[in-house]
Amino acid sequence: RLATYDSLNSDNIRMSPSTKKRNLDPSTKVPSKSVPSNDDNSGIENHSLDEEFFPTNPSLQSRGISFTYWPKGWVLQKRPRLSGTMAGKKEPYWISPIHKFRLRSMKEVGRFFMALQHYHGDEQLAKKHMKDFK
After folding, report:
1. What is the pLDDT of residue 122?
2. Number of CB atoms found within 10 A of residue 134's CB
3. In sequence order, what DSSP letters do the residues of 9-75 get, joined into one string?
4. Start-to-end CA span in the chain (Å)
5. Element of type H or E holding 131
6. What is the pLDDT of residues 4-19, one digit of tens each?
7. Are 82 and 90 in contact (CB under 8 A)?
8. Among candidates 84, 69, 75, which has minimal Cα distance to 44?
9. Mind listing the pLDDT tens digit for each residue in 71-110?
């Protein structure tokens, strides 16, 4: 099911020195984390990003990652905070299409896309090593 990320290529990716030192084996298995279900309908809004414009991001474009639209299957979920001074405020989460990984910011989404490009669309490896991409 790597067709979702056909537009990714491995050119122009900058990795941190710690990534270059490690031997990153693509066959490594990483347990997937699933998104909590919305059975209780507690104010969670899901919005499909299919056919939505992908925000212009010069940092990603300089690394060869440029989309006009979000790749198929991505979802923007807005969940209300349950506690703290901002309780009730809805926070955005971007949900990946295959393993339903939850990303909390566009910066994190950008790192995930760079890792996806490097690992040829493998979401599990991308999630595990996305911190190595700046």
Report:
1. 95
2. 12
3. -SSS--B-HHHHHS---TT------PPPP-TT--S-EEEE-TTPBPPP-HHHHTTT---SBPPTT-E
4. 26
5. none
6. 455 555 444 444 444 4
7. no
8. 75
9. 899 999 999 999 999 988 999 999 999 999 999 998 899 9
∠ CA 25-124-23 to the nearest 5 degrees? 20
Q: Residue 85 in 3-state DSSP?
A: coil
pTM above 0.70, yes or no: no
* pLDDT for 8: 56
How far apart are the C-alpha atoms of 82 and 101, rounded to whole Å? 21
Q: Residue 108 is encoded by which pair of tokens?
A: 């994190």
Residue type, position 86, single letter? M
